[in-house]
Design goal:
This protein is of the alpha/beta class and 428 residues long. The protein is 40% helix and 14% strand. Helix 5 runs parallel beside helix 6 and helix 13 crosses helix 14. Bound molecules: nicotinamide-adenine-dinucleotide. InterPro entries: 6-PGluconate_DH-like_C_sf, NAD(P)-bd_dom_sf, UDP-Glc/GDP-Man, UDP-Glc/GDP-Man_DH_C, UDP-Glc/GDP-Man_DH_C_sf, UDP-Glc/GDP-Man_DH_dimer, UDP-Glc/GDP-Man_DH_N, UDP-sugar_DH.
């Protein structure tokens, strides 16, 4: 296998061609390997084979075209096409169930597919974010299905992905990577393989450590955002601007407070803290509480809206509310777990009408003027660049009542003639 990696003759199968799997498959193909992408969504397979990406990401069109036209990347939904490969890289989704427990059904199904296709000596890499001890459990599942012995007859590694959408192709090359093997040889082999395109630092450890490391990273961010959000609540109580206070606190050399806002969204941050604590025996209060604080932020935005409506004696059931932004982060079209959607759900039954406008998301109002015409309040739920330089004096003329609720600290100076409330902006 080592020789195959060096000479790029090792055959690779990537399982799951989504936001992580497709860029990973492209990188290995463009590094000179023959890559077969296995994906259960037939329409995704067809699109990729015609050289078209089904996800939005800078540089992806050219890199995918290169990989497909060179003949080194082919997608399939036939498991026969991934039989006997040297390497299997699993990149399927690992979401939460309704009750916030991990849904590992996609992973288990992918592992079973791999177990039926692999050969003695194959290296299996799990890139998906998983609860601690999952890689060891999946190795046992493969042992049961194949009769092979993990660490002796096949290699297995957890290699977590740390890229950020919008910067995936840069970060795949320059981020540091961790390879958690079920044996040291497994980690060593995976490190050699990824060195074919990774220029960042690489580290080897065991699979449970690497699972925990990935989950710690996102939990660290989630808990710190929750702390900033709690500071925002306090700022409202004391009638001060939390952003001014945080900026001043951050002048301390050992303090780095995060940014408060209407909530935490995306595929990873809202779920990964749950994956970290789920297999543990005790109740890890801080991590769970942080999740609750962050999930509660759309309700703070709702409170601010209703307070503002009260000051103009407009009952909520008569109010037309325009939500600006549906994506979970600025200049992105990704609405997965978006707090903007949670805000809409929280208010839609209580107000006369909720309209949404997002320049990146289909199915919303066509323009900002459209959405604000006759509205009583504009609620900014996403920090898209477009929202940072709006001419509120002109837009205010379209509105029936001039209320702005800023959930993302987008409006620096509240415009004249508006009732303005923002999360963490207690002084206004
Ligand atoms: N998206 C990110 O920014 C990001 C960053 C770091 C880590 N991760 C982790 O990476 C993993 C994948 O995330 P994603 O955003 O790429 O998910 P995704 O939903 O975009 O892609 C997963 C793909 O796997 C396919 N799939 C599901 N079951 C399959 C099976 N049994 N066989 C073949 N294909 C199958 C799905 O159809 C889908 O196309 C998750 O565990 C996630 O937490 C994601």
């Amino acid at each position: 296998m080592e020789g195959g990696i060096e000479k790029r003759t090792a055959e690779i199968a990537v399982i799951g061609l989504g936001y992580i799997g497709l860029p990973t498959a492209i990188m290995f193909a463009n590094a000179g390997f023959n890559v077969t992408g296995y994906e259960i969504r037939k329409e995704v397979v067809d699109k990729i084979n015609s050289g078209e990406a089904h996800i939005v990401e800078p540089e992806i069109d050219e890199l995918l075209k290169n990989a497909v036209e060179s003949g080194r990347l082919r997608a399939t939904s036939d498991p026969e096409d991934i039989r006997g490969k040297d390497v299997y890289i699993i990149c399927v989704q690992t979401p939460l169930n309704e009750d916030k427990t991990p849904n590992l059904s996609y992973l288990e199904s992918a592992v079973k597919t791999v177990a039926k296709a692999m050969k003695r000596g194959s290296l299996i890499v799990i890139e998906s974010t998983v609860p601690p001890l999952t890689t060891v459990k999946m190795a046992k599942l493969i042992e049961e299905i194949t009769g092979l012995k993990a660490g002796e007859d096949f290699y297995m590694v957890h290699a977590p992905e740390r890229v950020m959408p919008g910067r995936i192709f840069k970060e795949l090359v320059y981020n540091s990577r961790i390879f958690g093997g079920i044996t040291p040889e497994s980690a060593e082999l995976a490190e050699k393989l990824y060195r074919s395109f990774v220029k960042g630092q690489t580290f080897k450890t065991n699979s449970t450590v690497s699972e925990v490391v990935k989950l710690m990273e996102n939990t660290f961010r989630d808990v710190n955002i929750a702390l900033a959000n709690e500071f925002a609540y306090l700022a409202h109580q004391y009638g001060i601007d939390a952003f001014e206070a945080i900026e001043l606190a951050n002048t301390h050399p050992r303090v780095k407070i995060h940014v408060p806002g209407i909530g935490v969204g995306g595929h990873c941050l809202p779920k990964d803290p749950h994956l970290l604590v789920w297999p543990a025996r005790d109740d890890f209060g801080l991590i769970r509480l942080a999740r609750e604080v962050n999930d509660g932020m759309p309700l703070l935005a709702k409170d601010l809206l209703f307070e503002a409506l009260k000051t103009v004696n407009l009952p909520p059931e008569k109010a037309v509310v325009a939500v600006l932004g549906l994506a979970y982060k600025g200049d992105s079209d990704d609405t997965r777990n978006s707090p903007a959607k949670a805000f809409v759900e929280a208010v839609e039954e209580d107000v006369a009408e909720v309209r949404t406008y997002d320049p990146f998301v289909e199915g919303t109002h066509g323009s900002i003027e459209d959405v604000l015409e006759g509205a009583d309040a504009a609620v900014i739920a996403t920090d898209h660049s477009e929202f940072k330089s709006l001419n509120w004096e002109e837009l205010g003329k379209l509105m029936r009542t001039r209320i702005i609720i800023d959930g993302r600290h987008v409006v620096e100076m509240p415009p004249e003639g508006f009732i303005f409330k923002g999360i963490g902006r207690g002084e206004y």
